[in-house]
Write a structure and sequence with these properties.
- The protein has no helices and four strands.
- The chain is an all-beta fold.
- The protein has a domain of 27 residues.
- The radius of gyration is 12 Å and the shape is globular.
- The two termini are 14 Å apart.
Length: 47
């Protein structure tokens, strides 16, 4: 997670795992196409 205090908290855009199944505690809730090469991902985190 990357936080810009008072502005945003976002998931890091870099790939740091071999498979997204390795990430525990995150659920992808929605994916949107935002142009030819851009995507937006909405997710929730477990406590």
């Amino acid at each position: 997670m990357v936080e810009i205090e008072g502005v945003t908290i976002e998931a890091c855009g870099g790939t740091h795992v071999k498979n997204t199944g390795e990430i525990k505690g995150i659920t992808i809730t929605k994916l949107q196409n935002k142009g030819k090469s851009n995507r937006r991902m909405y997710f929730t985190l477990e406590d």
